[in-house]
Amino acid sequence: MTRWNMDRRAFLKVAGALGAGLAMKPGFAWSADGDTLRIRMDGDLQTLDPAFMIGGIEDVIMRGIYVSLNRLGDLREGSPWSLWGAQTLELKDPKTIAFTLIDGLKWSKGLGPVTAEDVKFSYERIADPKLSSPWAYQFEKLDRVEVVDARSGIIHLKDPYQPIFVTSLPYYGGHIISRAGTEKAGGKFTTEPPATCGPYLFSDWQQKQKVTLTANPDWPGPKPDFGKVEIYIVADDQAAQLAYEADAFDYTKIAISATKAVKASPPANTKVIEAQSTRYVWLTINMLSPRLKDLKVRQAVQYGVDVGQILTGVYDDLTKRSTGVVQPGTKFARASNLIAAPDYGKSAALLTEAGVSGLSLTLTVMNDSIRTATAQIIQASLEQAGIKVEIQPYDEAAFWGVGDKTQGDGYKNIDLALMDFAGGVDPSENLVWFRPDQIGAYNWSGFDSAEFETSYQQLVAESDPAKRVALSNRMEDLMEQSGGFVFICHQPLVVIHKTDFEPVIYPDGHPNPVLFKKKV
């Protein structure tokens, strides 16, 4: 058995070696002038096609190189939306939205102005079932986009979709791409966009090291405060903190375990941000696995996980247990969990009732320090319930392939998976991934509930706040009752940054460097 036992001094010694290794990488700058913003992200990019982006660094890059009709503000201010690429954006009725683009938007590579036809192409493309975009749900209520003239159009919906202004238009699916450029590229692209239009240009990419964005001289909107953005790729939070302290960059997320020490003695000229993020963490219990088809066996796992130990050992008690995937502190959050784990006696009794003894399961996890530590606590906890767990670590790219049905039937053999997703402003954004059509994509528990799907459709159409609360609470009840989930927490977000600018952080916890403001 491998027990979680993190010795901070030993870990920092390893992290220091990692940080030192970063300094020796070609192109890793340890200083920059005042017009360069240096931020750190924890994973490399895989695609800059909005229809297939995964998140993280791709999210940050695309906010710089593409334009959307509107944008979101800082999560500490409630993430309000405001106009961005649109001069006007008006809900005419529950199924009709009119827009007019700002004047002067134009594509790179000489592909001409951004038009309402590009908006139509972008939205209808991502909604097309033939494309099989994981973000298609953001426009599944789209009927069509009507082009009125070069800069104006009307978005027609099949049914009302309440979250459209906070989950679709300013987010991944809402990024506008060039119709001419994309069609010339064959309809899809990966890391080489056929054309861009945003405050920044995608200038350079050194794989697993750094991405550089430079100010776009043709951008007609508000100019960003920084002429260059360098995005450094450092997987480990502890190593990133040490690199920050050595002046490798100006903004980074840090490990939760470092929060108290950094708040007590922050680095020079540094501000600490501590906020509630929308990133939710849970343990997936895959009901498609031959070992977990019996509900009682899945419930035995639910009763066998000591979430309290995770909150203390990994998150230093800076956050509380989540009652679901919907963000705590909002009106949509459930009052409590249905299963108050751990109860090892109950877990053992359920296995006996199911006629199962000597249960052995695998736990799929990304191989960074936070997720590994969480997995080790789950492993030790379940062992006390008589369930043996083998941890299977993967790097980020390989991890997402494990549950991808396009790569074979391996997703049906996952037993347990530790997962965390960046959430959104509306509860539907967090609940959408557990619909039946996400099985073999992002619904790794194999959760297949007709009532859940019906409730989801009602949730996105309903305008009455009380009814929306009841619907989202019921959906989380269904998830927990299925035996497919152990809700753990919403991760606290802890960021350090230089005091000479003020960052803007999206509700998914990622920075939007386009909106960073220098202090005068």
Give a short overview:
Keywords: Signal, Transport. The chain is α+β, with helices and mostly antiparallel strands and 520 residues long. It has helices at residues 8-23, 57-65, 116-127, 164-168, 179-184, 237-245, 259-264, 295-304, 307-313, 344-353, 369-384, 396-402, 427-431, 450-461, 465-481, and strands at residues 36-41, 70-72, 81-83, 86-93, 96-101, 142-147, 152-157, 200-206, 210-215, 228-233, 251-253, 270-285, 360-366, 388-394, 416-421, 485-498, 501-502, 517-518.
Distance from N terminus to C terminus (CA atoms, Å) equals 56 Å
The unreliable regions are 1-32
**Biggest sheet overview:** 6 strands, mixed
Radius of gyration: 23 Å
Q: How many beta-strand runs?
A: 18
Strand content: 15-25%
Q: In terms of structural class, how would the helical and strand content be classed?
A: alpha+beta
The gross shape turns out to be: globular
Distinct helical segment count: 15
Give the helix level as a range of percent.
25-40%
Mean pLDDT: 91
Question: What does the model show?
Answer:
28% of the residues lie in helices and 22% in strands. By secondary structure, the chain is of the alpha+beta class. Helix 8 runs antiparallel to helix 10 and helix 9 runs antiparallel to helix 11.
Features:
520 residues; alpha+beta; six-stranded mixed sheet; four-stranded mixed sheet; 15 helices; 18 strands; disordered N terminus
